[in-house]
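User: My instructor asked us to take a sequence, write out its structure as tokens, and then describe one feature of it. I'm not sure where to start. Here is the sequence I was given:
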Amino acid sequence: MYIEELSKKLADVGVHVSRKTLRRWADQGLISNRKQRFPPRGRGNTENWPSEAFEEAAAVWAVKETAKKRLTPKEIKDIQIVGMRTFYNPQAYYTWSHDVPLTGPVPRDRFPRHLLHREGYDHRVLRIEFRDDHPVTLFSRLVELRTGEEPRPGEERLIEMLEDERTAAAIDYFIQCDDPVRQAPILVMADLTKLRVNVPSHLVRTWVMAFVKAACGVEVTAPKKVVFHWRTLHDDAGSFFVFEKTVLEEPDLRDPSYAHLRESIIAPKEPPLEDEVVICVDGVDVRKKVFYAPFDDWDPSKQYGPAT
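Assistant: Let's start with the prediction itself. The structure tokens for your sequence are:
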């Protein structure tokens, strides 16, 4: 698309960026770069911008607006790397208050008195924490890339590792070795640890939310809840996850009673979040499996007890 079209699409979702800035972001590798198209006759040329530059630019703009300091291109790229993994894997970390019990159903009479509310509390007090992958997960991704998987955006550093003969040989040994101990990962684990990046979780959430909102044609600054739906499939090799769809909903945290509840349980000094990211596997919010562990034994009547 022309840069004029790109600018208009961004303005339609509340993102106002100059053409000069868009070109600079592209040159810095923050968004997909344009290609020059030369007309067959006459003078001049036309910039052809890929469609994905739209969502990427909206996400970069949102991160820059949210950050309380000036971010370097590398810092933004690290945020992108962690954010993009949300689209490829349903795994997530969670944070909670130290006062919230997470081990099995807890009878109402055992609740700390200051946590008792008429509406009770539930899995929504858990927040997704965006972190870089564990080295074991990164190693598994290296194996997939080595066996022919297509690289994803943000995996440039993994591709560079595969170009190292020592790393490639270790992964090949891992793939072909019948020894159950399989020592090959140890050879590259230290290098993978160096690849881990430390990024602010709230900026990754901002990047993910802005990316999805822009893709759905929604105002980037409008509070939303994005739900990633995954499905579990099985074959002879085992179980694996398949991405189904992304759905935008109204955020639970806009509910006045819940906002008050979250303030008192999670972070009294922190204003309630407006944007949410939720992961569902087989139709179930995975926070429930964490909060009500063991999930299969959970019974609401046991969790909250009779109404009072």
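For the description part of your assignment, you could build on this observation: The two ends are 61 Å apart (CA to CA). Try explaining in your own words what that tells you about the chain.
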